[in-house]
What does this fold into?
Amino acid sequence: MIDPANPDFWSDLFEVLLKGTGETLYMVFFALLATVVVGLPLGILLVGTERGGLFERPFGSRKLGIVLNRVLDFIVNLGRSVPFIILMIAVIPFTRLIVGTFIGSTAAIVPLSLVAIPFFARMVEIALKEVDSGLTEAAKSLGATRWQIVRKVLVPEALPSMLLGLSTTITSIINFSAMVGTVAGGGLGDVAFRYGYQRYSTIHIVAVIIIIFIIVQSLAAIAAHFARRFARKSSDSARTEATNRLLLQATPGAN
Amino acid sequence: MISLQHVSKAFGSGAGRTLALDDVSLEVARGEIYGVVGQSGAGKSTLIRTANLLERPDSGTITVDGRDLTTLGDNDLRVARQGIGMIFQHFNLLSGRTVLSNVELALEFIGVETKERRRRAAEILDLVGLTDKASAYPAQLSGGQKQRVGIARALAGRPSILLSDEATSALDPETTRSILELLRRINAELGLTVLLITHEMDVVKSICDSAALLERGRIAEQGRLVELISTSGSRLARDLFPLGAVTAHPGATVIDITFSGGSADRPVISQLARDHGLDVSILGAAIETIAGNQAGRTRLELPGTAEVNARAIADLRGQGLLVEVVSGPEASDVAVDGDAA
It folds into this structure.
């Protein structure tokens, strides 16, 4: 039992929270990095290997395109349907292979990335599908390579909605990062579990909630800010309407 | 310059299969403006998209500047496309790039270095009259301005051919006129060959040298406009001079006379009155400038007896005028007198 009257209570609390916040930000940052690095190309491939897509015939074979599309779609669906707590346990051998251990914040980055990658890939897929196919057509007529179309046309035009997707992804990574705390992953979830749950400290729980709330809201606000800045330039098309709707959802306070 | 030979393209399969292009052949000469007209669903869009192989035909060949595009590999095709500019009905500009940067995009694809890119983009923006909008975003432009950016982007890589996919269909009449003038100007100044599709006869009338009528995927009629207007029974010619429905007395003889080239300023009607004693009534008339030549069509009612009328008509044809009998005793010969002119 923790006693708030203890003279060391507040300094201990501060220290514990600082460490927890640091670990959470560490996990979230690297998981996010892995998510973008893997999820973005995955989303591009998901759209590209579809019928009529840019990569519908990888190495000249439509069959390979279909297979690739099915496989990627299956992986993304699988990743999205398995509950995180189960996924986390199931990938332990994989985590061990990569990190060497399955305990601690660094190890937690692996399952966090694995759950966020399919999520973000879907977001990227949706954002890319919103881009007017006429733009791809125009780029093709100008003699662009596929890579140029992706890099100079599709990704920049889909950027506002991809940023909003990223904001939602960050929120869910933070959400799951709290869960890894319960299985020795560290972070704010660990603080809430060990102090709030096992030792009945309401103050710890409240403090953790406030910190997580601030992190989520400020990251969402940053993403929404950039999304809005890029979206402002776009025309009065259906794409903007969709983006505006997403913006409303992603604006702190509106969700 | 552009030659489509026996091009066919079908969409769908089984019962839902539709033939968008059915054995289409057409030839666009260097430096001319060639217009394909037709109603929506006639296959115009598919046709123009086969010209740079955005749509690959099921059969047939597409030869541009002496090279058969259908035989090219991915990379060669890409390079070939850089010599074929294209503009679109909905402009297809990148919303996140400025006007200047949209034009530069075309040069980025080709691999032109930054400094030269900027110089060329500014130069071409000047050509289309948009220098003052260089740093604006597409959302801040009017439709006509957006199309000018589209044209600038298409021309940036110095293509020798321009494809226009209903480029003026989303614009109001006045803007349409200014865009057509611009196309005419770049055609003349840069010697650009233009293939355009449109559903508006006015576009053909104001800038085309040649035209084709596309119907259900087939070319119903094609040729140079100056020749088409002096071809009896030409539907394109009839659409160029819309005289409306015949409103003469029942049984009266009604004829359409087409004037073109040197005959446009001859006093034909007063001659008819003097030489044949006919008090003709004018039922309708249209005078147009077609492919740079003045041309007109007049619809007359001849009040004489069948004999007198026939003599008058023969006389007119003798003068080298195209005379088509729209109603009256001779009306049935319209379809067969194609060689009369």
